[in-house]
Amino acid sequence: xxxxxxxxxxxxxxxxxxDKIENxxxxxxxxxxxxxxxxxNLTGDKNSNFKEEERGFSAEIYGGNSNERGSGHPxxxxxxxxxxxxxxxxxxxxxxxxxxxxxxxxxxxxxxxxLPHIDLDYPHMVCLYYVNDSDGDTLFYDRSKKNIIGRxxxxxxRCLIFNxxxxxxxxxxxxxxxxxxxxxxxxxxxxxxxxxTYTPLKTYE
Length: 205
Fold this sequence. Notes:
The structure is a single chain. The protein is mainly beta. It is built from two helices and ten strands. The radius of gyration is 16 Å and the shape is globular.
């Protein structure tokens, strides 16, 4: 596609951070298990007849249905680190972070796409951070939600940024290994960008 409705960047997040985030989410530190919760519908569209393949595991990190922003996970600053590192290197000023979640899709025998969707029903940007190397492309659709107009393959340390309010997208189930991402919904352009002091990544060492 000549002018895809998204931007893809590799390794804006440092290698050290990539490794720590992957090890935390896949519970590779001794004595620590990252809490992921089963979901029968990862897209969260309660008005649709979702597919069986949309099952998986997720965790609310920041915002969402929490009564207070940031109360989704006790170590939410750790998980916001990739977004701030990415935006800093792209010279983006963050206006507000609406929501941050992590998703894990388990490998299956065949790859099937989930339902096309948008994350929020008001203007926002999306940053998908790919936690590990896997298959299971992210797919983009035209406004009919029937025709695929772009796809991005997961790769550890890769981030995918796009306008989440107008671009319908979906995930494909992986067939080689489990697929984990962090999904950030946010907005830009505040002349006095909101700053959150994040917990150093050594939190989980």
